[in-house]
Amino acid sequence: MIAAAFEYHRPAHLKGALGVLAEYGDDARVLAGGHSLIPMMKLRMAAVGHLVDLQDIADLKGIRVAGGRVTIGAMTTQHEMIASADLARAAPIIAEAAVQIADPQVRYMGTIGGNVANGDPGNDMPGLMQCLNATFTLVGPDGSREVAARDFYHSAYVTAREDGEILTQISFAAPTGGYAYEKQKRKIGDYATAACAVQLTKAGGKVTSAAVAMTNLADTPVFSDAAGAALVGTSGDAAAVKAAVTAAVAAISPTGDNRGPAEFKRHIAGIIIGRAITRALSRA
Amino acid sequence: MGTKMHIALTVNGEAHELLAEPRELLIYVLRERLNLTGPHAGCETSHCGACTVEMNGKSVKSCTVFAAQANGATITTIEGLGSPDSLSVLQQSFREHHGLQCGYCTPGMITRAHRLLQENPDPTEEEVRFGISGNLCRCTGYQNIVKAILAAAATINGAKEAAE
User: Fold this and answer.
1) Which SS3 state, helix, strand or coil, does residue B111 take?
2) Residue B114 has pLDDT above 60, yes or no
3) From the list B64, B112, B132, which residue is nearest A39 (CB)?
């Protein structure tokens, strides 16, 4: 399987990359780790006239934790996030989710930027970013703007990013309290049948804040305000967990595919969401 | 046809320069241009890991890397780890523990195991299994592969201790 011919660009600076996008419009695509885009190009399901490889742009790499805020450059790989001691302290949910993505070889190449920008409903980081209330930085010909992860995803592969823009970094307030990323998949390397990210805090025996978001259970990630609200103010007892799961499952709209029919996915989602909430509570 | 570009690679310590279309896959550059047929093209869809090589210190599936992306890279293939006259510890261990049957996955499996032991010199059985989860073997059931990798780690660690 050989991709159709393309022109290859490897700019050393963001400005150069933006220039190629400005010149060639939607005939140009940026390449991060390539483990979503290259298979699509080989299958001739993605037509790319100009491929803009971001690997030499040093500004897009790195993890910074400062002033209670975590900032991760778009070209930071899953492997680098798993290995980061700073990230393990500031937001351990990131590594917990990242080790469940694909397999070791893919994690050496796959990046946070590619994972969140591609808009594939099967990717794990978009739901996690919604759980963490992260912000994405988009840089385009007219400068830079910030979009909340919770507003970024419109439908499968359709996001708030414009053709001429590059997603350069993600950032979020370092979370506190309990967390969990639970994922059900058929085998290592598979996308989720259902996955759920939970981050919550407790004080004086009561849940004081809770965020619940889900992966691959609709054509976008699903953030459920109602599931969080069902937990806040409770002790996190079985009735509260059940109410939160019911609210979260009400927010999803899975479709049947080779991972099972929609009803099966709703069932699995309920179990995975319940496990994620229970584990997050046990760590709070 | 796309325009060809100059590609410079260091493979198993040797510098190479060649002309290739950017879309050529690294696996075919290695196999067909450089005649390094150790890495195998298996599924060609980034699932099986038979094409695993080391690129800039990472295990990668060379069926999912364009030649252009590898320009400037340092690459190690199974041929760079040992030779028939001088097997590496991992290769010797795969032989002793019967860690292969048909042998198709073996170069990728050993190249991946090499990087795994660089990063985690004393892995548990579970860590070995998780560490090679990107490499499929349809013959062995993995038991002897895992045994071979654990035994290689013990040999390497034993040699290190003896040297101290």
Assistant:
1) helix
2) yes
3) B64
Mutual angle of helices B106-119 and B143-163, in 10-degree steps: 40
Q: What is the mean pLDDT of residues A4-15?
A: 98
Domain count, chain A: 3
Which band of pLDDT confidence, cut at 50, 70 and 90, is reported for residue A62? very high
The interface residues of chain A toward chain B in range 83-102, judged by CB-CB distance below 8 A, are: 102
pLDDT of residue A100: 97
DSSP letter string, A54-93: -TT-GGG--EEEETTEEEEETT-BHHHHHH-HHHHHH-HH
Element (H, E) at A96: helix A92-98
Which CATH fold topology does B89-163 show?
Answer: DNA polymerase; domain 1 (1.10.150)
A207 & A105 share domain: no
What is the per-residue pLDDT for A154? 98
Say if residue A194 is in the same domain as residue A262: yes
The architecture (CATH level 2) of B5-80 comes to Roll (3.10)
What are the chain B neighbours of A185 within 8 Å (beta carbons)? none
| A108 chain-B contacts, CB cut-off 8 A | 58-60
Q: List the single best residue of A8, A105, A108, A185 to mutate versus B (max B Cβ within 10 A).
A: A105
Q: From its phi and psi, is residue B58 left (phi > 0), alpha (psi between -120 and 50) or beta? A: beta
pTM score, whole prediction: 0.96
Facing B44 at nearest CB: one of A1, A8, A41: A1
Does A79 touch chain B if contact means CB atoms closer than 8 Å? yes
Q: Would the pLDDT of B1 be above 60?
A: no
Which residue spans of chain B are classified as CATH 3.10.20.30? 5-80
Can you give the pLDDT at residue B161?
A: 87
Within-domain flag for A2: no
B43 contact residues in A (CB cutoff 8 A): none
Whether ipTM > 0.85 holds is yes
Q: Which two tokens stand for residue A212?
A: 């619940």
